[in-house]
Amino acid sequence: MAVASFKTNPYGLHELLKKCEGGLLQLPDFQRSWVWDEDRIKSLISSVSRGFPIGALMTLETGGVVDFKPRPIEGAPDNAVTTRPEALLLDGQQRMTSLYQVSLRGKVVETITPKKKRVKRLFYIDIVKALDPTVERDEAIVSVGEDRLLAEDFGRKIVLDLTTREKEFERLMYPVSMIFNWDEWQKQFIEHFMKDGEFPKKWDVLRQFKENVLDNFIHYQVPVIALGAGTSKEAVCVVFEKVNTGGKALDAFELVTAMYAADGYELRRDWYGKDGEFGRQHRFKEMLRPAGQDSGIIAAVSNTDFLHAVSLFHARERRREAEAAGKQGKELPAVSGNRNALLNLPLDAYKKYQAQVEEGFVRAAKFLHMLHIYRVFDLPYQTQIIPLAAILADIGAAWEHEANRAKLSQWYWNGVFGELYGSAVESRIARDFLEVPAWLKGGALPSTIRDSTFRAERLKTMRMRISAAYKGVNALLMKTGAEDIRSGQKFDHIVFFGENVDIHHIFPKKWCEDRKIKPAVYDSIINKTPLAYRTNRIIGGAAPSIYLSKLEQGDKETPPISMQNLDGYLRSHLIDPSLLRADQFEAFMIDRQERLLALIEKATGQSAYRGETEDEEAETDSETAEAELTIAA
Questions:
Q1: Are 368 and 339 in contact (CB under 8 A)?
Q2: Rounded Cα distance, 168 and 144, in Å
Q3: What is the reported pLDDT for 250?
Q4: Inter-axis angle of helices 93-103 and 38-49, to 10 degrees?
Q5: Taking CA atoms, which of 40, 63, 378, 606 is between 20 and 30 Å from 128?
Q6: Under a CB-based contact definition with an 8 Å cutoff, are residues 507 and 585 in contact?
């Protein structure tokens, strides 16, 4: 029978705040800084003053499976740093820090306005307004500057002066910093009004305030969900995903960062850099970055992608050790890149493999350029970079051998045209990491190649730029020597960026629409090809026969092109010049589909499936789902 690893208990607010002050309740080091503005702080004070719920806290007992580096809440005294915490506050940092800063700290609160202007504030409760049922409680919470003055008319008119304790008494303004120090404030209040005989008139108001407002703070109970020391790393990560919906999403990298920090290692420095050093994120962004472009091809590799690749090496190492110990089958640890594998990546394993894996990503960038994939936008699958980099890191200099690169290309294109890296890819990444290097050495065919199938009719339904296979066709055309039909230049990375190459219609959209051809037909990849920006402008919306004639004649900017040369440029795009010159759209579509199919078959090393397929509507739904997955990722 499973037993819950948590318990829920109510704790007094004052007790919790004292634990924060003393360092017994701290934060895991990965938690972001305190960021609440003064209006949210006022609203929080208002809620507690009425005894309204402000939500549960969640804590994690220290000394267990998950060992995070702790840090005190913002504003806690220096001695809190040296105290070993009993628990870490996983959810509730903003609320507890806000309440601590305004109630126990006894200093001005450095916060921001709703317009993000930095300000210093002290908070008060207007006693009269707080007791008036016709006044919204939020209006009874007042904030003033560190000079304890509230001014209007651009500071020229002082409307509230609280510069002395006596002035607080006269205006019946109770400092929030004294909510747990009622006895002292009350004593001074009595002494002040006894001097002039006004105390009897004021006492009833003060008594009502104590009973109806202040006691809500003093007796306030906060529900605390306390996770035990045995809570797993994966469970902690899931907890953050569930409870931290209103803040910065927490990922495995942040948790691993906190765990490594407990051993004195700054993982964030590796990725983001520090003290003028460039981190790995910057190096990836700059890798093969073309002049004039913001970033290179591996700029979108995330810190969790990198940890994923590292974890593959560690998992394989553990598996090999188990095999050497005589274990078999289910006894062997799985090689996986799931979240749990990342969270259980030891620091020594990270240190051991990080440089090797980084080199793998560098090689992946070069490999993708060889395939004529130059921009992150043009990557068929971002997820496929992870196994690609891990494989290239593993095989080392062997990737320079032409035969190995040919095999890697075949594996890569099968992943693309088999559309196998769109979702639920963790197990595939792990299998490819194990299988592809073995295949390069003469082993069995990888499952990604065995699982890959490309259907001939799929070309007709590839219309969306975010489709992996759509991007794959574009890259393959450039890789196999497509030449711009105006300049005759091949699309290396210099021409690609210098000439603003993109994928464009062969039979122009306007021409097709004028002839009532459906977008579902003319928008497919069959009727598209990579072209330079200037070339596409010359094409315009004219019939192919007309724009080909214009290209042959030339103009002020472009010299004439011979028919022989132009036909050669067209053939490099797998276009039959005779069909294009005759404006035979239907025949062109049939012919080019077969040519593109042959191109894909050559790249994947497999015959396409030419049987019946799903209807077009189903294909469109599939592409839309893929788009949503790509965007979500």
A1: no
A2: 12
A3: 59
A4: 80
A5: 40
A6: yes
The per-residue pLDDT for 632 is 31
Give the pLDDT confidence score for residue 234 in this predicted structure.
Answer: 72
Nearest-CA neighbor of 601 among 438, 413, 467, 423? 413
Please give the distance of CA 210 from its chain centroid, rounded to a whole number: 48
Encode burial over 366-378: b for 16+ CB neighbours within 10 A, e otherwise: ebbbebbbbbbeb
Q: How far is CA 612 from CA 82, 196, 404, 579, 609, in A?
A: 71, 99, 35, 27, 9
Q: 242-247: which pairs have CB atoms within 8 A and are 24 or more residues apart?
A: 243/58, 243/90, 243/91, 244/91, 247/32, 247/94
Q: How far apart are the first and last CA of the chain?
A: 37
Which token pair is 47?
Answer: 């809620």
Report pLDDT for 558: 80
Q: What is the model's pLDDT at position 243? A: 61
What's the pLDDT at 621? Answer: 38
What is the Cβ-side half-sphere exposure of residue 483, based on CA atoms within 13 angstroms? 13
Classify the C-alpha dihedral 539-544-545-549 as positive or negative. positive
Report how far apart, in Å, the C-alpha atoms of 137 and of each of 42, 50, 51, 133, 145 are. Answer: 10, 8, 12, 8, 21
Kind of pairing between the strands at 141-144 and 149-152 = unpaired
> How large is the angle between the packed helices 402-417 and 426-440, nearest 10 degrees?
150
Q: Which residues pair with 490 in a beta bridge?
A: 483
In whole angstroms, how large is the CA radius of gyration of the chain? Answer: 34
Handedness of CA 515, 520, 522, 526 (dihedral sign): negative
Distances 572 to 231, 338, 483 between C-alpha atoms, Å: 61, 43, 6
- Separation of alpha carbons 417 and 236, rounded Å: 38
**Of 400, 384, 405, whose CA–CA distance to 448 is shortest?**
384
SS (H, E, C) 446-512: CHHHHHCCCECCHHHHCCCCCCHHHHHHHHHHHHCCCECCCCCCECCHHHHHHCCCEEEECCCHHHH
* pLDDT given for residue 603 in this prediction: 97
- DSSP-assigned letters across all residues of 135-159: S-GGGGEEEE-TT-EEEETTTTEEE
Query: Do 225 and 6 form a contact (C-beta atoms < 8 A)?
Result: yes
CA distance 571 to 614: 31
Count of helices and strands (H, E) across the chain: 30, 14
> In which residue ranges of the chain is pLDDT below 50?
1-3, 245-247, 614-633
The three-class DSSP label of residue 414 is helix
3-state secondary structure (DSSP) of residue 528: strand
The string over 297-321, giving b where at least 16 C-beta atoms fall within 10 Å of a residue's C-beta and e elsewhere, is: bbbbbbbbbbbbbbbbbbbbebbee
pLDDT of 544 reads 95
Rounded to an integer, what distance in angstroms lies between the CA atom of residue 388 and that of residue 194?
82
Q: Indicate the SS3 state at residue 288.
A: coil
Strands 528-531 and 109-112, by their bridges, are: unpaired
CA–CA gap between residue 59 and residue 360 (Å, rounded): 39
**Quick check: 418 and 453 in contact, CB under 8 A?**
yes
At 211, list the tokens.
């009973």
Q: Which residue has the tokens 């094409």?
A: 539
| Closest by CA position to 349, among listed 303, 309, 311 | 311
Of how many residues is the chain composed? 633
Residue type, 532: A
Q: How far apart are CA 164 and CA 182, in angstroms?
A: 17
0.70 exceeded by pTM: yes
